Amino acid sequence: MKKTLLFFSLLLLASCDNDYYSGDERIVIEGNVVKNSTALARANISVYSSYTEPKSDVISEISGENPGDYDYSYNQISTIKTDADGKFSLSVPRNKNSHAYIVRIEKNGDHKVYGYISDYNVRDYYINMGSLNF
Amino acid sequence: MKKLILIFGLFFSVALEAQESEKIWFVKDFQISLGFSNLAPNKGMMGDAHSKAFPEVAARIGVFHYDRLSVGMFGSIHNMKVKDRQYYGDFEKTTVRSIGPYVSYFQPISSSSLLEPYISYDYAYYNANFDRKKLSFESDGFGMGLDFEHKVSEKGYFILGFKYSVNKLRTETNPSWEKYLNNYNFFSVKMGFTFASNRL
């Protein structure tokens, strides 16, 4: 009995690490990255599913200082680089277990995280995050 | 309902007449093939995201035959490497499984060769895995193909064929992006063998 419980516990833990996505819905995410009011080209943009429940439609920088600030999956669902104008455009399928996404911007070892993309601010499967300061 | 009964009545009377004249058979052909898929895709997410696929393994079985007409089922499977992740997502490869009914008609062009055009409904199930991520989705499609078949034994035919598939992903998305994200059309080519009775 103990072995069975242990097996199912391990199975549950293993399944928690996986992110399950369905292509029945796709959100298009666009925006641009600026640094000192100048377009930031070739910055890495990564989108992660977030398990934090957002409370508003506001997109802002997430400091990560508060517990649960970004309880996110460590498996990025999408990653691209900004173009010469600092713009990015991508799409993500629906995560079966969460309803929010965060965007991580990285360049030269520095990074910033913005969120949350959720039902509050996605209209018709589309969101333009506007200018994100790096 | 009356129309349905009429159609079935017509079908069975034709079948009965055909059977009497030895023009109707059941489960008389089987085809197995290897080929390339995702060739010359349209401008869309699926085509942009994936490389050409090889091998595509396919099989089909003719269930009902009337004279030169066949109705049957086909199935196929292939993997495609993800080459562009921008709109598709961070995945390494996609596995595609297709199944559906088809209708074909063969036309002899010589004493040992024939052409067999066909149309099919293509249901496809896709899944992609990478780094503990799993993605699944579906599409509906319409296929148009043509097989060239050359007789190599009493019931065996070597085949070369191609097919064009017009597919639409079952994905809800922004209307402005719908065409790019959902439409997926491509060619596939194949070679293999058909085993069939009552042809040449």
Secondary structure elements and pairings:
The complex is a heterodimer of chains A (134) and B (200).
Chain A: H1 2-16, E1 19-35, E2 38-39, E3 44-50, E4 60-61, E5 78-81, E6 87-95, E7 100-107, E8 110-117, E9 126-133
Parallel strand pairs in A: 1-9
Antiparallel strand pairs in A: 1-2, 1-6, 3-5, 3-7, 4-8, 7-8
Chain B: H1 2-20, E1 24-39, H2 45-49, E2 53-66, E3 69-81, E4 93-105, E5 107-108, E6 113-130, E7 133-151, E8 156-169, H3 175-182, E9 183-196
Antiparallel strand pairs in B: 1-2, 1-9, 2-3, 3-4, 4-6, 5-6, 6-7, 7-8, 8-9
Describe this structure in words.
- The complex is a heterodimer of chains A (134) and B (200).
- Chain A is mainly β and 134 residues long.
- Chain A has one domain (22-133): Immunoglobulins (Immunoglobulin-like), CATH 2.60.40.10.
- In chain A, 11% of the residues lie in helices and 49% in strands.
- Chain A has one helix spanning 2-16, and strands spanning 19-35, 38-39, 44-50, 60-61, 78-81, 87-95, 100-107, 110-117, 126-133.
- In chain A, strand 1 (19-35) and strand 2 form a beta hairpin.
- Chain B has 200 residues and is an alpha+beta fold.
- Chain B has a single domain (24-196), classed as Porin.
- Helices cover 16% and strands 62% of the residues of chain B.
- An 8-stranded antiparallel beta barrel of chain B has the order 1-2-3-4-6-7-8-9.
- The longest helix of chain B is centred in the first third of the chain and has 19 residues, at 2-20.
- Chain B is elongated.
- The mean pLDDT of chain B is 92.
- Chain A binds chain B through residues 17-28, 75-80, 89-93, 124-126, and chain B through 45, 85-90, 126, 131-138, 169-177, 181.
